[in-house]
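DM from R.C. (forwarded with permission)

"hey, sorry to bug you on a friday — could you get me a structure for this? deadline for the figure draft is monday and I only need the backbone to look sensible"
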Amino acid sequence: MPRPTLKKRSDGRYVCYYKDKPFYGITQTEAYNKRDEYKKQIEMGLKADAAGRTVSSYAEEWIKTYKSGVSQKTYNSYIVFIKDLLNECGDKIIQDVTTSDIQRVYNTRASNSDSDIKKLAMTVNSIFESAHADGLIIRNPCAKAKRPVGTTGTHRALEGWEKDIIKRMAKTDHRFAPAAMVMLYAGLRRGEMLALNIDRDVDFKAMTITINEAIRYDSNKPILCDPKTEAGKRTIPMLDELAAVLYGKHGLLAEMQDGGYLSETGFRRLWDSYLYNCSIMLNDGQRKRWIGKTKTDKLLLAEGEDISTWKEFKIQTHDFRHSYCTMLYEAGIDLKSAQKWMGHADEKMILKIYAHLTAKQENIAADKLRKYVLKVQNRIL
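My reply, with the result:
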């Protein structure tokens, strides 16, 4: 049966209806095609009121519905990722979002860490998965988008001279010095270290450290919780060097000056103070503000000589943990023991670090072999 002829509107377009919903087109065929496509989508499960919903309006509903119970810090991180999505296609009808749109969203963070990009992709995908489940879209446009590979391996093992600074700092009265030693020689995560109580968790007779709790932050406030994973609850052998630092000390490893768990701001200030004092030690006791102002420096400058520049001690808290894992590898500790002491749920991360260290050692060995062969050849010549 032929379609009825549509009457042309005053604005030059044609319109047809389906259940009182108008569909417009420059030609009659375009109007009918839009109607037929809508009918097809309804048959495939699309909700009748889906038309017109923008990405922005749905994302606002999504975070209120699905993420209202998370911590403020986690909620804020979702907001940041959603802003990336909205900057690219917030005003777009959610049905019209394409894989290319999603790819452009991912690409905005292409130079970031792989972890950051992964979190963005998970957030965006969750939004569109929910939209699909709610009957607002026929397919998830994230399905074919490729997440860029960001930077990895930002954490590293400390070098020998850096460890020496840490050990020398342990002999000072800096409030963070014992905590740094525990993170380096027991591999504790920051949150695990902040919850550690020497009187309760350190057994000098058995020479062990037990981890049962951790600290996380919610809007600067410290919250006592379980460790990152169930495997995070563990008992670690305590090294003699670490026992010597902790013996005679009591209570929390690092705390507010008036007692209690460190706030996030309090931790940051204490950490910055610790790094600055490590830098002073690295610069033979000279403070940064003294560079060029001491009598010796002034005399050298007057004679046209160069003066020593300030050397900054730069490490991240997670570098302690990476260093501990490296020490386990170099000591020949088996994977199962390393996994247990590091508090990992599985062997994946340990295997990744061990494989990297093995490859590094193989490269060093290969370089030694090349130098040896070249030396022998030179003798013959």
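R.C.: lifesaver. The two ends are 97 Å apart (CA to CA).
me: no worries. Strands lie at 14-18, 21-25, 202-203, 208-211, 214-218, 221-225, 234-237.
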